[in-house]
Amino acid sequence: MLEDGLLLLFMHTNMAEPMELLCWGGDWDLPSVHTDSLIVLAYAKFSGAALAVKSIDWTWRTITASVPQLHFEGSTVTEPTQILNFLRKQRFNADYELTAKQGADTMAYIALLEEKLRPALLHTFWVDAENYANLTRPWFTSHSPFPLNFFVPGRQASLALSRILLTKAESPLLNITEVEGKIYSEAKECLNLLSHRLGNFHFFFGDRPTSLDAFVFGHIAPLIKAPLPSGQLQKHLNQLDNLCQFCNTILKNYFTDASAEKRMDCSPTATHDPVDANLQKLTQLVNKESNLIEKMDDNLRSSPQHRPHRHDTKPSAPASENSTRA
Amino acid sequence: MSLAAEAFVSQIAAAEPWPENATLYQPLKEDQILLSDSASSLAVQTFLRMCGLPVLVSCRANAEYMSPSGKVPFIHVGNQVVSELGLIVQFTKAKGHSLSDGLDDVQRAEMKAYMELVNNMLLTAELYIQWCDDYTATEISRPRYSSPYSWPLNHILAYQKQWEVRRKMNAIGWSGKSLEQVYEDVSQCCQALSQRLGTQPYFFNKQPTELDALVFGHLFTILTTQLTNDELAEKVKSYTNLLSFCHRIEQAYFKEHDRESQSGSSRHSKGSLP
C-alpha cells in the first residue's frame, strides 16, 4: 500500500519510467553494503537509468525479499544478471560500445569473480568469527526490525557457510579452516589478475564504465571500505593501488552524495610511472610469497608428519628473500 | 590440498622427470562414466598430449573414491596422486612442462577467466542436466553411475550422488532454473567462446594452452554423447568455428590414437554414431 502510493507519486513526478529498486542500505561511504545491490546501483548510474532506490532496512523485507529486486510496471526481476539484462532491454545499455570479444571477456571475468572472489568475500564478512561478531552481525541487526534482528544475520551467515562448504570443500577438506587457506589464496590471485587486467586504465574497457566495471565495483567496494577488524584480504587489496583507485573514481564520479569525505586507505596519486608499476608488482609478488611462506610455516609447525622435512623456501620464489611479514 | 602440502608436492615433483608409467584413472568408459566426468577426463588427456607427456588411461569402477579430492580424473605419477585440471597443470609446471609460459600477465588473466567461465557455466550445466533433470537422471545418470554395484548399494549410491549434486545446485542458485534457461546459458557460454576464438586456430593464437584443452574436452564430449535429446549438442553445433576447433584438435592430437576407441568411448550405450 505504501509502496503503491510511493510508486504513484513517482509516476506523477517523473514522466520517465519509474523503476523501483529494493536493496540494502548504505554505510561506510557506500550507497549499499550488499554486493549484489551495489552491482545494480553502479550499473544504473553507468547506463543512466533513473531508479527509485528503496532500502529494505528496518522493514519485513529483510527476511522475505531476495535482494536486489527491481519492480517495473508490475513485473519483478531479481538477481543482478537478470536485472542487468532487463535494463538492457529497456535500452539502458552501458555495453553497446563493446566489441563481441569484449562482451565475451565480460562474461569470462564475471565467472572468475563469482568462482574465486565471492567465496572469500562471503567468508570475510559472514564466517570469519571476528568480523562477523564485531561488524557484520551488529550492522545487520541494527538495520533489521524487531524481532527479525535475531534471525536475519544468522540466516545469511548459515547460507554463506553452506555455500562455501558445498562449492569449495571436497571430501578431504571437510573442515572450514582448511578450506580457508584455499579460498583466500584463490581470492588473492583473482585480485592480482584483475589488477593486471585493469593496468593503468580508468575502467576495464577504456574510458567508459561497463557492466564488468559494475560487477568488479560491487565485489571490491565493500572490501575496501568496510572497517574490518581482521581483514587479510582487505590488506592485500589495499596494496593493489589501481583497484583502490578504480573504486574511488567510481564513487567520486557516480556516487558523490554518498561519499562526502573519503579517507582513502591507499595512495591517492595515479601515476602512470612504469617504475611505480614495477614496484607495485614486486610488492605484490613479495607479499604473495611471504603470505604463502607464513602459512606454510604455520602449517609445518602444526602438522606432525611434516616435521622431519623442513622447507624454508618456496620452490619457485623469484623475488628476494627478505620477506616482510605482511 | 593445503598450501603447505601443495608447496611440498611441487618441490618433490620438480625433483623427478615425468615417468613412463604415468597413469590416468577414470570411471569405466562403456558403462559407468557420465558426461561431466568424461569431459573432465578428456580435457586432462588432451592437456597431457599437448605437453607431449605420455599417460596410460586406466578405467576403474571406484576411480571416484581413489581420487584425493573425490573428483575424476586423477593422475598417478611416480609416487604422487593429483586430481583436477587446475592442480594437474600446476604439477606439470613444477616438472618443467607448461603451455602458458609465453603468455603475458593480461593474457594469463584472460585465460584463467575463460577457464572459470567454462567451469562455471558448461560444467555446472552438464551436472544440472545429468542430475537435476528428472528424466535424464532416471534414464541415464542413475543407472550408469551405479552400474558396477549390486542391489541395494546401487540405489543408495546413486541417490546419494544425486542428493549431493542437487544440494550444490541449490547453494549456487541454479535449482530455480528451468531446463530451457540452462540450455540458454550453455548457448551464451558457447557464444562467448566462439567470439573469443574468432578465426584463430587456438584461443591464444598459434599455441594451444590449457584453455584449449578444457574447451575441447567439454565440447567434444557434448557433441559425441547421446543424451535423452540432442538439444545440448545442437546448441554447440550452431557455432561453426567451435566445431572446426574441435576437429582441428582431434586431428592434431588424437589421430594416431585408435579413433573408434576415442569416439566410441564417450558414447552412452543407448546412442548410435551420428
TrEMBL record, chain A:
Its main location: mitochondrion. The keyword Membrane applies. Residues 294-326 are annotated as: Disordered. It holds the Pfam family Tom37. Residues 187-250 form the Metaxin glutathione S-transferase domain. Keywords: Membrane, Mitochondrion, Mitochondrion outer membrane, Protein transport, Transport. It is found in: Mitochondrion outer membrane. Residues 37-155 form the Mitochondrial outer membrane transport complex Sam37/metaxin N-terminal domain. GO terms for cellular component: SAM complex. The keyword Mitochondrion applies. One of its GO terms (biological process) is protein transport. Belongs to the metaxin family. This is Metaxin.
Automatic annotation (TrEMBL), chain B:
Residues 187-249 form the Metaxin glutathione S-transferase domain. Pfam families: GST_C_6, GST_N_4. Keywords: Acetylation, Membrane, Mitochondrion, Mitochondrion outer membrane, Protein transport, Transport. Residues 40-134 form the Thioredoxin-like fold domain. It is found in: Mitochondrion outer membrane. GO terms for cellular component: SAM complex. One of its GO terms (biological process) is mitochondrion organization. Its main location: mitochondrion. InterPro entries: Glutathione-S-Trfase_C_sf, Glutathione_S-Trfase, Metaxin_GST, Mito_Protein_Transport_Metaxin, Thioredoxin-like_fold. SUPFAM superfamilies: GST C-terminal domain-like. The keyword Nucleotide-binding does not apply. Interacts with MTX1/metaxin-1. Associates with the mitochondrial contact site and cristae organizing system (MICOS) complex, composed of at least MICOS10/MIC10, CHCHD3/MIC19, CHCHD6/MIC25, APOOL/MIC27, IMMT/MIC60, APOO/MIC23/MIC26 and QIL1/MIC13. This complex was also known under the names MINOS or MitOS complex. The MICOS complex associates with mitochondrial outer membrane proteins SAMM50, MTX1 and MTX2 (together described as components of the mitochondrial outer membrane sorting assembly machinery (SAM) complex) and DNAJC11, mitochondrial inner membrane protein TMEM11 and with HSPA9. Involved in transport of proteins into the mitochondrion. Belongs to the metaxin family. This is Metaxin-2.
